[in-house]
Design brief:
By secondary structure, the protein is of the alpha+beta class. It has four helices and three strands. The longest helix has 15 residues.
């Protein structure tokens, strides 16, 4: 998904928000664990981030990564803000409270800098946010 609906056309000229949701829903519907990622710091509001999380949950997405957008070159979309660790924690904590009844297992970690999307053995966590049902 990369970013919220309002900003998506500005940073993803070759992609469409609704089409991306449909693809993720198709993957999830076929029994494959589905994953998406979003960048924050592009000018989105916290409510818009919550909305994209709800949209992904509605199509069956199970895994979501949230990380700070960093402008790769001066020709790319500029960073609008550096999201605070407190805001990342708020995304995590709000999601736990709102969605706990929908999940059997909840592993949440929203981080400002994501080095990779793999298991972190030292912290015994995944740098991901499970937003849907996991396990059988």
């Amino acid at each position: 998904m990369e970013t919220v609906r309002r900003i998506s056309p500005l940073v993803r000229s070759a992609a469409n928000y609704d089409t991306s949701l449909q693809v993720i829903g198709h993957v999830a519907g076929s029994g494959i664990k589905s994953k998406s990622g979003i960048m924050v710091g592009l000018g989105e509001t916290p409510r818009e981030v919550e909305t994209i999380m709800d949209d992904l949950l509605a199509v069956g997405c199970q895994i979501l990564t949230i990380g700070q957008y960093l402008q790769p070159t001066h020709r790319h979309y500029p960073v609008a803000e550096y999201v605070t660790p407190q805001q990342f924690a708020a995304y995590k904590n709000n999601r736990i409270r709102e969605r706990i009844q929908h999940c059997r297992k909840r592993l949440l970690s929203a981080r400002p800098i994501m080095q990779r999307n793999t298991y972190d053995r030292k912290q015994n966590t995944f740098p991901i946010c499970f937003i849907g049902k996991t396990g059988k």
